């Protein structure tokens, strides 16, 4: 006799209703770091850096907002002045620490 009709298939045919929109990706802001060492930056390096427990090029760049080459020169200057002590000397990363007294 009369059979029950099956519901008609959906019009999408099993695909997603809307096509996925790809994001353009995250864009990192360009860092505006100092390229030339002025008197204020030099004084800040000389005062603050020798008090840090860990001193490296990356840390100087991050905390003082200076250029990488400026950070390397500053680290060499601090070591020559005897304000910091070298821990690791590697071609990729130079790691220093503050000078400690005999009581430490």
Question: Can you characterise this structure?
Answer:
This protein is α+β, with helices and mostly antiparallel strands. It has a domain at 39-98: Arc Repressor Mutant, subunit A (Orthogonal Bundle). Helices cover 31% and strands 12% of the residues. The chain has 3 helices and 3 strands; from the N terminus they run αβααββ. It has helices spanning 39-48, 57-64, 68-81; strands at residues 55-56, 84-89, 94-98. The protein has a 3-stranded antiparallel beta sheet. It is elongated and about 105 Å long. It starts with 38 loop residues before the first helix and ends in a 6-residue tail after the last strand. The model has no long low-confidence stretch (mean pLDDT 82). Residues 1-10 have a biased composition (Pro residues). Keywords: Ribonucleoprotein, Ribosomal protein. Residues 16-25 have a biased composition (Basic residues). It comes from Suillus placidus. Residues 1-31 are annotated as: Disordered.
Write a compact overview of the structure shown.
The chain is of the alpha+beta class and 104 residues long.
Give the uncertain stretches in residue-range form.
none
Structural class: alpha+beta
DSSP summary: helix tally: 3
Described by strand count, sense and barrel closure, the largest sheet is:
3 strands, antiparallel
What amount of the residues lies in strands? 5-15%
Q: What is the averaged pLDDT score?
A: 82
What would CATH call the homologous superfamily of the domain at 39-98? Winged helix-like DNA-binding domain superfamily/Winged helix DNA-binding domain
Which architecture of the domain at 39-98 would the CATH scheme give at its second level? Orthogonal Bundle
The share of residues in helices is 25-40%
Give the ordered list of helices and strands. Answer: HEHHEE
Number of DSSP strands?
Answer: 3
CATH class wording of the domain at 39-98: Mainly Alpha
**Bulk shape:** elongated
Radius of gyration over all CA atoms, rounded = 30 Å
CATH third-tier fold name of the domain at 39-98 = Arc Repressor Mutant, subunit A
Q: Distance N terminus to C terminus? A: 99 Å
Region (Disordered): 1-31
Pfam family, one: Ribosomal_S25
Protein name: 40S ribosomal protein S25
Family: Belongs to the eukaryotic ribosomal protein eS25 family.
